[in-house]
Write a structure and sequence with these properties.
Length: about 300
Amino acid sequence: MTLKIGTRGSKLATTQAGHMRDQLKYFGRDAELHIVTTPGDLNMSPVERIGVGVFTQALRDVLEKGECDIAVHSMKDLPTAADPRFHLVVPTRADSREALIARDGLTLSELPEGAKVGTSAPRRVSQLRALRPDLEILPLRGNIDTRMGKVTSGELDAVMLAYAGLTRVGMQDRATEVFDPDVIMPAPAQGALAIECRADDTETIRALNMLMHADTYVSAIAERTVLNRLEAGCTAPVAAHTTLGGYSGDTMTLTAGVFALDGSRQLVFTAEGDGARPEELGELVAAQLISEGAAELL
């Protein structure tokens, strides 16, 4: 049986899904892409206006109806609550850092005063304003080519994108600066994919489980637990980043931040815990942020 992989039709989405198709073929399972148009692909309003989960709901709908066997999402777009209808697998994560694509090879510090920078993500807006309050930050939607085209055309001086997306489509050399998470913290689970199939589809579950990457899974769960406990969606100014260490990689360090949209204030907290219990670590960090006043910033 050929497995149908549901995906959005953008270049990045089909590239990501294509990588998963190729891995399934490597493991001996035939698979093909099934393009699904989501409301978010048709509506160019900011994501926070058209709704959290707008990219994932249409994929989940066709998956539940049996029009496809697998759905491939960017994990940061998924609602944080587990959905019992589906079995979740998280493959190896791409580079989770944030990237700047600027004219003339400029870095963030080199951009002229009042430069126009495109991004619609409140998390990026707030951190950019903290670093460069002089910048004019403008809303940005569309696929990678559309966004970077606004720099090429001169409409914007720079745009902010996830470095993972650039690397997946082979455009990493377009980044003029890639930020250490200590400088600009990425979204929870940025760079991670979420692959779902129906929870009762035992044959597809067996195939997908071959793609699971344990370290990526626990890291993403820890980061997204912070988002869940803060009752914040994927468009909230919340960021998180994990590193795994220790003798056998069993120690996890989780840093998370909540940011004022005007850049005036930020709460950042780091804790270390057992990598095998990512929810506990995420809850600990979220509780600390809440105690320090995260609700006021959200």
